[in-house]
């Protein structure tokens, strides 16, 4: 039961957006500097960098690997080999493919990992990119990622020019020379964003104009199409239909695009101040296009005509902020909170540049009235009472058994959070410390719920201790608060069903027939007749107002379809089951790897 008002506010955001979109202050200065650079590139017509791990592309047997290599290396125009054996070849013959299969398989374990012994990735480039440049860019990227000290992986790269967009297929043997098993993870040294950025930065050395923005940064409201739609459109020889956002999911996307439009305008002003009129014009036009509901498109120019230095300007703030963040991280614990507030004040002064990404609006908002870290709630005149043994003892008792430091709590109280961003940063830091201490993965909803319950208990204890000592005005405790339900899970039955599905999506999530009917009623009350038809066809996007989490929407569709015998065994159910399996692999790859012992040796 959540009883701390301040924790309840943060919990709502976490359940709505997920931990990966919150993470304390949210976004590092380095990543925001990168984002600003990429936005400037998109405004000037650079083409999106397309990097894609192929779903289900891992090989489990020698036969599968042989078939895959035959496809990759007999249609290719360039080959790159991590061991240089086949460098310079255009294609490989049957004997070379067979030798390569044995080379890869010789490093395989007896047991087959869930994701296969290999990983297949594709880097796609704009129409008109020279094959030699695709080869060199992909080769440099693979050497940088897969031939590092401590990360020595065997791989083969095959460049294909048989389609409009030249592309490089990368097939990596997942077990490294050091015993590490390759996988993608959001906070891992191998992650999707770093590969896209590497494409942009490496391509620039060869004069190729790429950018690495999000779809929303370009004004694209829709989700990428599902694989089945891509294949179906090819069979039917028509354009691909992307997946629409619905309800609150669509509303959040519109708000995100509006914030991005404001950032384009802020960058345009910075470019004007730097006498970069051409860049300022492009950024201003991009802002206007997004405000009209349009989408940024590549201008079709592949190669750079001249040196482009605006990224240097957009990076200067990032570099200064990074140095400031490093100073904060290296500071003595008793100084860290004060430095965090100073850095936060700097960010507040440039909030229009969105230094914290989507969370930058919090820089202009006041903290909560009742949070223990809130400057509004702290009685400055009584702060000296923190040194009293009784108060100190109660603070230590509140955080006992967690990785939260009592010294950090005291330092934050002495400084006080003067805006919502800093208050949430400190509370989210507490949440992360709880997760670290208890081995929780905050990207998992069930683990997130457990961590929030613990955070609530701690902040309730802190609030009561500080109120008793008259250090805060309000303990921020609501005694009779109803049980927390996730934002989007507006009714209890739906919340219970989703919770059961998250634990095991293969079980019947209903306790009895009454609960089954109540769930159907709750779902049907949300939807129009047309949307219900889409739901029965297995279209999860009609539940955009239920949750921003696609996996939760898929769970809800499966539960709904299987709650009625007329749809329980329909083709739509089979498709949803497959989508759930694929999505769990895509969004929880790191968790699956850990559960299966696939991570191998950890580095960095």
Report what the structure shows.
This protein has 604 residues and is mainly alpha-helical. The protein has 4 domains: 146 residues, no CATH class; 159 residues, no CATH class; 162 residues, BirA Bifunctional Protein, domain 2 (2-Layer Sandwich), CATH 3.30.930.30; 103 residues, no CATH class. Helix content is 52%, strand content 6%. The strands form 3 sheets. A 5-stranded antiparallel beta sheet has the order 2-4-8-7-3, with helices on both faces. α3 runs antiparallel to α11 and α9 runs antiparallel to α10. The longest helix has 27 residues. It is globular and about 80 Å long. Pfam families: Relaxase. It comes from Notoacmeibacter ruber.
Summarize the structure in short.
The chain has 604 residues and is mainly alpha-helical. The protein is 52% helix and 6% strand.
Sequence-ordered SSE layout with sheet pairings:
Blueprint: H1 5-17, H2 19-22, H3 29-43, E1 47-48, E2 50-53, H4 62-74, E3 78-81, H5 94-105, E4 118-124, H6 131-146, E5 147-148, E6 151-152, E7 155-160, E8 167-173, H7 192-205, E9 210-211, H8 227-236, H9 247-273, H10 277-291, H11 310-330, H12 333-349, H13 389-399, H14 406-415, H15 420-438, H16 445-468, H17 492-503, H18 513-526, H19 529-536, H20 550-562, H21 571-587, H22 589-595
Parallel strand pairs: 1-9
Antiparallel strand pairs: 2-4, 3-7, 4-8, 5-6, 7-8
């Amino acid at each position: 039961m959540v009883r701390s008002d301040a924790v309840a506010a943060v919990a709502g955001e976490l359940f709505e957006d997920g931990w990966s979109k919150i993470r304390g202050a949210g976004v590092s200065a380095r990543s925001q500097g990168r984002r600003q650079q990429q936005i400037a590139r998109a405004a000037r017509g650079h083409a999106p960098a397309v990097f894609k791990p192929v779903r289900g592309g891992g090989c489990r047997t020698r036969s599968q690997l042989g078939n895959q290599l035959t496809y990759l290396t007999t249609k290719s125009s360039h080959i790159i080999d991590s061991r240089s054996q086949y460098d310079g070849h255009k294609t490989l013959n049957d004997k070379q493919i067979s030798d390569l299969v044995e080379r890869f398989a010789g490093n395989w374990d007896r047991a087959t990992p869930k994701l296969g012994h290999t990983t297949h990735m594709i880097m796609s480039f704009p129409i008109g990119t020279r094959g030699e440049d695709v080869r060199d860019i992909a080769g440099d990227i693979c050497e940088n990622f897969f031939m590092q000290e401590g990360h020595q992986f065997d791989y083969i790269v095959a460049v294909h020019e048989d389609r409009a967009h030249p592309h490089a297929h990368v097939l990596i043997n997942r077990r490294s020379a050091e015993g590490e098993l390759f996988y993608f993870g959001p906070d891992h040294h191998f992650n999707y964003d770093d590969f896209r950025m590497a494409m942009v930065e490496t391509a620039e050395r060869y004069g190729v104009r790429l950018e690495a923005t999000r779809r929303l940064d370009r004004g694209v409201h829709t989700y990428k199409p599902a694989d089945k739609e891509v294949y179906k459109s090819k069979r039917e020889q028509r354009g691909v239909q992307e997946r629409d956002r619905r309800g609150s999911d669509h509303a959040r996307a519109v708000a995100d695009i509006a914030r991005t439009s404001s950032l384009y305008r802020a960058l345009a002003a910075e470019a004007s101040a730097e006498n970069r009129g051409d860049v300022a014009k492009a950024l201003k036009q991009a802002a206007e296009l997004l405000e009209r509901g349009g989408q940024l498109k590549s201008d079709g120019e592949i190669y750079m005509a001249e040196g482009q230095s605006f990224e240097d300007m957009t990076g200067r703030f990032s570099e200064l902020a990074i140095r400031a963040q490093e100073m904060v991280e290296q500071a003595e614990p008793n100084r860290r909170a004060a430095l965090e507030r100073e850095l936060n004040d700097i960010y507040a002064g440039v909030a229009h540049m969105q230094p914290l990404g989507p969370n930058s609006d919090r820089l202009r908002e006041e903290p909560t009235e009742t949070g223990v870290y809130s400057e509004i709630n702290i009685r400055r005149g009584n702060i000296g009472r923190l040194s009293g043994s009784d108060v100190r003892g109660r603070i230590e008792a509140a955080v006992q058994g967690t990785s939260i430091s009592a010294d950090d709590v005291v330092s934050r109280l002495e400084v006080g959070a003067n805006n919502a961003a800093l208050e949430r940063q400190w509370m989210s830091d507490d949440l992360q410390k709880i997760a670290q201490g208890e081995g929780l993965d905050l990207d998992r909803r069930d683990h997130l719920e457990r961590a929030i319950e613990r955070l609530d208990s701690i902040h309730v204890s802190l609030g009561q201790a500080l109120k008793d000592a008259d250090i805060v005005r309000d303990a921020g405790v609501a005694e009779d608060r109803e049980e927390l339900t996730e934002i989007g899970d507006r009714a209890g039955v739906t919340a219970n069903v989703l919770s059961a599905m998250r634990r095991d999506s293969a079980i019947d999530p209903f306790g009895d027939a009454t609960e089954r009917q109540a769930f159907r009623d709750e779902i049907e009350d949300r939807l129009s007749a047309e949307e219900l038809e889409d739901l029965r066809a297995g279209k999860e996007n009609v539940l955009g107002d239920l949750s921003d989490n696609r996996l939760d929407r898929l769970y809800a569709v499966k539960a709904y379809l299987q709650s009625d015998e007329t749809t329980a065994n329909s083709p739509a159910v089979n498709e949803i089951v497959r989508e759930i399996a694929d999505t769990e692999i895509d969004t929880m790859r790191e968790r699956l790897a850990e559960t299966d012992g696939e991570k191998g040796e950890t580095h960095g």
